[in-house]
Amino acid sequence: MNEVVPARLPKTILYVEDVEANVKVIRAILKSQLAGCELLSVPTAEEGLVIALEQQPDVILMDINLPDMDGLEATRRLKQDPKTADIPVIALTADAMPQQIEKADNIGFSAYVTKPIDMTLFLQTLFSVYETSLEQ
Q1: Gap between the Cα atoms of 60 and 16, Å rounded
Q2: Residue 94: DSSP 8-state
Q3: Long-range contact set of residues 51-55: C-beta below 8 Å, sequence gap at least 24
Q4: 37-72 as b/e, with b when 16 or more CB fall inside 10 Å?
Q5: Which has the least CB within 10 A, 29, 57, 85, 114?
Q6: What is the distance between the alpha carbons of residues 113 and 117, in angstroms, rounded to a whole number?
Q7: What is the CATH number of domain 12-118?
Q8: Residue range 13-28, pLDDT digits in tens
Q9: Mean of the per-residue pLDDT values for the chain?
Q10: Where are the domains of the chain?
Q11: What is the pTM of this model?
């Protein structure tokens, strides 16, 4: 199966995730599929908020169940700050409950991807969300 890779790809992705094994999976996917894309990772929502403001990544991948504050609240804060409001945020979580997905949608997540990661679906979602953000 040949994948079509968009002409414009994110250069920097911030992944807010407290489980190192999950970070390694995403890092491996990005390394194999998006050469030159830098993955910044932090284990807490608070650190994610700081890095998002300082680094202005192209896309943020946000776990929902984090140790200090949940990813829903962190994304709510990102969307309320004019400096980070336009950065697309993709939920990347094991929580596939419909009410959780609805909450995420209402907060302003650009997409919701569940774990375990389907690499093709993840990349399609990432490309689509990034392309959409560039058009706005």
Answers
A1: 8
A2: S
A3: 51/14, 52/14, 52/78, 52/84, 52/87, 53/81, 53/83, 53/84, 55/12, 55/14
A4: bebbbbbbbbbbbebbeeeebbbbbbbbebeeebbb
A5: 85
A6: 8
A7: 3.40.50.2300
A8: 999 999 999 999 999 9
A9: 92
A10: 12-118
A11: 0.93
